[in-house]
Amino acid sequence: MQTILVFALLGLGSGAVIAAVAIGVVLSWRGTGSFNLAAGASVMVAGYMFWAFRTGFFRFTLDTWPAVIATLAFMVLYAVVIELLAVRPLRTASPLAKLVASLGVLLLSQALVQVIFGTAPLASPAVLPDDVIVVGDVPVPVAQLILAAGVSLLAAGLWLIYRFTRFGLATRASSENEVAAVLAGLEPSSISVMNSILANLGAGMVGIAAAPIVGISATTIPLLIVPALAAALFARFTSFGIACAAGLAIGVGESLIFYASTKPWFPNRNGVALSGVQPLVVFVLIVVALWWRGSSLPQRGDLRERSLPRVPKQEQLARRMVPMVAACAIALVVLPSEFRQAVVTGLVGTVLCLSFIVIMGYVGQLSVVQLALAGIAGFGVARLSSRYGIGFPLGPLIAVVMALIVGVVVGVSALRVRGVTLVVVTLAAAVAVEKFVFANPDWGGGQTAVTVEQPSIFGVSLGTDAGFRGLGGDLPSPVFGLCALVVTAALYAFVANLRRGELGRRMLAVRSNERAAAAAGVNVRALKVAAFAISSALAGVAGVLFAYDFGTVSTSMFDVMTALSVVASVYVLGVTVVQGAVLGGFGMVGAVVPLILQKWVLPQNQVGLYVQLLIGAGLLLQLRFYPDGILIASATKRERRRVERLRGSATPPVQPANQQGVAA
Amino acid sequence: MTAPALAVRGVSVRYGGLRAVSNVSLEVPDGKIVGLIGPNGAGKTTLVDAIAGFVACDGRVEIAGQDVTRLKPHARVRRGLGRTWQAVELFDDLSVAENVAVAIGTPSPWATVKELFIKPTLDKARVGGVLDSVGIGHLFEAMPTELSEGQRKLVGIARAFAGSPRVVCLDEPAAGLDTSETRALGLQLRGLTSGGTSMLLIDHDIGFVFGTCDHVVVVEFGEVIAEGPPHEIYANERVIEAYLGSSALRTNDPGGPS
Ligand SMILES: Nc1ncnc2c1ncn2[C@@H]1O[C@H](COP(=O)(O)OP(=O)(O)OP(=O)(O)O)[C@@H](O)[C@H]1O
Ligand SMILES: [Mg+2]
């Protein structure tokens, strides 16, 4: 009993961080109506800055209090910069665009921090006393208690501010009806910046104080957004108190699960407890919160859920595809080996991105679980052959079906939610799959990479080790690349064709207007499940190809941050057109574009970080200048020109034609 | 006697404490147009939502004699129901032709799968025919966002008729149309009944309703206060008091019924 209590109290430390992030999420929602995925990144930034001020990273060393003040001042600056870069330009944009902008901030902040401070976790100097006081016979860690009390005070303070000050009133008014608030003389943009500063100051204080307890790491802290989103959902994105309490409770719960995992009755393998149960519980919590607290976020008065970018028609598919396919085929034979490898990776990345085009572009469901599904298929194909001897072609088939099933399960658990809320579910699912499945040494890779047996049929190798070696004569063999090319081209044509047919039409109808689609006889639920199935299967195919392409699979290939940068890059390029998938695929780490950058432009060893930096920055620029994505902006321009040409010559303008028609 | 195309039997809808529709019964016989009029907030749209399955209701809704009260909206559509929306809800990402094509009917699963692998074609003749029946054939290629409000209304109507439904509920189809367009719409709707389609027609333009319908139902505060052929309703004291008195002025067809 006593140990349980100790573990519960220890959980208050990370619980406080989760609570602070959750409070940040609530503040962003109330202040600007944006769904802030970067709330966790603020804690990370504060932790790193404080560390830097205290340890002389900037060539000067500050004492604790001056360092705290300098860090908080920096957080105010950080808030203002983000406000100017990513929030203010998008004030009237759709919730989805705001969400994607916060994704850009997250990617950018995380990459910058790692480029500046390095990727290794740091040990921060303690701020809070590390004493333990004994109450009764329970040893109580003081720091955790202070932290928990601190965030609770923060929540209470915010509640008071929102309740009783003019500023709070203004925020509440503007979140209910922005237009009315403007008419009443309140300035939404200053309200928004104030909320953002409050959120970052809160995150900053908690980040400084909690850094020694939870550790400073650019890879783990930003992802605290996932449990924080669960807490914010329970608070319906409005109540500071509930967000804080739920955040603390999740921290305590995770710590207790950790304690339980030391017990013999906990599910284990050879005495090693199952890992990743916590993220799985968070995922379940989120699903529960969505069913219990209502399927969507509270509406803000100023929100019209504006639709996604347009979906240009797919004309002249064959004519467009032939040169591309031919170019890839030639490249696969003549290029030197590392470029051949990069082309193959680009092709596989294209398949992965096609799955986003279907689920995001066509159906409007922003799902970030696709890379995790690819991972399931990748590990599946590796494990099926190594453990059960099921090789090509049955192994990959089963692996794709596994990805499909998991994808449909995630989709079904999110059937009632739409738009941005789906991101929460799929993000939590992705983290859960990564930590629970991939990190498991039996099902996934654990800490090591798993070797994949190359495909062959009737004794003829189709893999990267096949006999034919291209012009250079070295590995990898172009044979696998050509197989991947065939698969990619077929799937590309399939997804483009989908846009032209009945099923694609229904998907777009659902994307435009679910109610009206139902009134036109579309079974919205069945259609969404079908879309999840198609897109999961595409992700599964990509996963299998990745496994063969690299010859090994490891957890890091399919982690959540990679998934988020792929989502972001597809969005930058054009999420509603298949061409966007090609560019996104060839821009993935390991593919052609990063390889070129790595060889001639960027420092060799951190190309992944720089690519993430580019994507994050590109996302913010694109949202500002081409809110629909670059390819779609140009396609729309072309189509408009075509329509104008038509109008100008052949047909009479629409308006008079109508009057004639009615008069007749 | 065959079952009416649409029968509403004792339907009530509550929004919290408000009874938006209470115990309404009406029938739309095959091939007939029934008008539904009443002042703002009388519950007309709510009744259509109940018929189409978008709000939960007490009572029964039957399409061609089949009880559909427990069915989801899309399943009711497949039993032969169409509807339009008071505020037009088009699929803005699809062209006018595609908007109509979505509603043309559910292809078999096999056809859907086949279409994924061969180049699909839009049934141009059929979609064009539907658009022509409401006089907007020339808008085939247009995008909904390029249209005027009146044209959007007509696209919504075309979409409701696309699946050859037994009965269509039209929620204020003439709002936003000018006088000549309204008159043309009335003729087109009458023309569509010759194919056997029935309609429940809601509008505030009394001239339009009385000139187009075979039978008129009047509701106020969610209850039916009168029903009968147009000329009887036109002379009904209670209706005049409740509704016509104020809104007869809004009629933009000065000829009206006689
Ligand atoms: N979703 C809703 N929630 C709560 N009350 C509603 C809702 N929709 C409608 N109401 C109320 O139900 C009543 C009937 O509304 P309804 O829209 O059916 O009227 P109507 O006859 O269509 O009016 P109008 O001629 O203005 O279109 C009104 O009092 C309205 O305020
Ligand atoms: Mg109405």
Task: Walk me through the structure.
The complex is a heterodimer of chains A (about 675) and B (about 260). Chain A has about 675 residues and is mainly alpha-helical. The relative contact order of chain A is 0.12. Chain A has 3 domains: about 190 residues, no CATH class; about 220 residues, no CATH class; about 60 residues, no CATH class. Chain A is globular and about 75 Å long. In chain A, about 70% of the residues lie in helices and about 5% in strands. Chain A contains 26 helices and 8 strands. By secondary structure, chain B is of the alpha/beta class. Chain B has one domain: P-loop containing nucleotide triphosphate hydrolases (Rossmann fold, 3-Layer(aba) Sandwich). Chain B has 10 helices and 10 strands. In chain B, the strands form 2 sheets. In chain B, strands 6-7-8-3-9-10 form a 6-stranded mixed β-sheet, with helices on both faces. A 4-stranded antiparallel β-sheet of chain B has the order 2-1-4-5, covered by helices on one side. In chain B, helix 3 crosses helix 5, helix 3 runs parallel beside helix 6 and helix 7 runs parallel beside helix 8. Chain B is globular and about 60 Å long. Classes of the chains: A mainly alpha (about 675), B alpha/beta (about 260). At the A-B interface, helix 17, helix 18, helix 19 and helix 26 of A face helix 2, helix 3, helix 4, helix 6 and helix 7 of B. The site of magnesium ion (MG) has 4 residues of chain B, from helix 1.
Distance between the termini of chain B: 31 Å
Strand-residue fraction of chain A? under 5%
Proportion in β-strands of chain B: 15-25%
Helix-residue proportion of chain B: 25-40%
Shape of chain A: globular
The count of helical stretches of chain A stands at 26
